[in-house]
Amino acid sequence: MNLNEKSVLLTGGTNGIGREIALQLKDKGAHVVVTGRNPERIAAMEAAGFETMAADLSNAAGVDALIAQWGDRPLDVLLNNAGQLVDHDFRKGAVDADAADVAIYANLNAPIRLIAGLIDALKSRPSSAIVNVTSGLAISPAARQPVYCATKSGLRFYTLSLREQLKETAVRVIEALPPVVDTQMNDGNPMKKMPAEECARQIVEALEKDRNEANIGMTKALRWAESLSPSLARSVTLKF
Could you say which architecture CATH assigns to the domain 7-237? Predict the structure, then answer.
């Protein structure tokens, strides 16, 4: 896809990987609308020349409000990047079930609801794309992040099914599977982290080159290990 003058809706675009994606898409001539919740980060993106839409994607009302705000404007790329981590480790003590519900909605329900609400706009374009950002942990889980792993694997399988459904249309469905990336979300994670700028570059490249998947960084090795032996892959990731 030639990104010049393409209209992009990028969720979670004010920080981390999303912010880097927004900057790189803008450099390629795309008109990028970013969503976020933090007023200071939203203001910073506006100061950098981006159109923004404040959006709380942790519930149906927030998603529907974003869809309504988008209205009938053209849409070439829906990039579902927003996501949340939640501490859900029984080894540390009691867990917060309500916080888990919020993360499940933001990570899984919100992308599905956004796609359902905006699919007609995407289908009306001569060439369009849905990009769902999952994770290497959608392939093999980490013990300390069961909710995050469950939602990302759920989004992975949704993406695979959606791609099959839309294969006769002009809508390409792309999955991006990042490794551990150097963002605020991963503060305190002891694993080696990929720079957010490089992760974003590979996601944008997959979009430009019409790839079905972007297996990024160490995710490539994890995919290889999982293809040889799922139990081998799990024996590595479950330690983290």
Answer: 3-Layer(aba) Sandwich (3.40)
Q: Has residue 200 got a pLDDT over 70?
A: yes
On the question of pLDDT at 185 being above 80, the answer is no
What tokens appear for 186 in the block?
């991963």
**Which pLDDT band, with edges at 50, 70 and 90, does 55 fall under?**
very high
Residue 135: DSSP 8-state: -
The residues assigned a catalytic role are 148
Say how far apart CA 147 and CA 149 lie, in whole Å: 5
